[in-house]
Structures are given as structure tokens and as C-alpha cells.
Amino acid sequence: MVYVIAVLDVIICVALVALVMMQEGSSTGLGIIGGGADTFFGHNKGRSMDSLLKKVTTVLVGVLIVLTVVLNFIIQ
Q1: What pTM was estimated for this model as a whole?
Q2: Quick one: pLDDT at residue 12?
């Protein structure tokens, strides 16, 4: 049981790294340096995918926390 939870923990960690790397950085506050010439439609097109990635990241972080706490109690 411990090994199953530990393997799930590692898989979720790797998935979180991949999800964070796939997300776009926040370019607010950069002004002209960041290339703020996004059109309205181009800006909202990427936003739906980015918001989905943020929601999945939040859920995976919650699952990671729960699995880590359970793993800690099982090992002790």
C-alpha cells in the first residue's frame, strides 16, 4: 500500500511540473516590453486553455497534499 501511494505521489509531482511548464506566464505590468499588442480575440483564445490548466493544477496540488499526508501517517 505504501509503495502504491508513493508511486502516485511521484507521478503527480511529475504531472505538476509538466502542467506548470505548459502554463503561460503573466505578462501584466510589463507594458511595451512584454509586447502588449494582443488583440481581444487572440487574448481570450489562449485564456480558456490557460484557465483549464490552472484548474487542473489546483486539483492535482490538493490530491498531492492529501496523498502526502496519508503517506506520512502510514509510514509512522
Answers
A1: 0.71
A2: 97
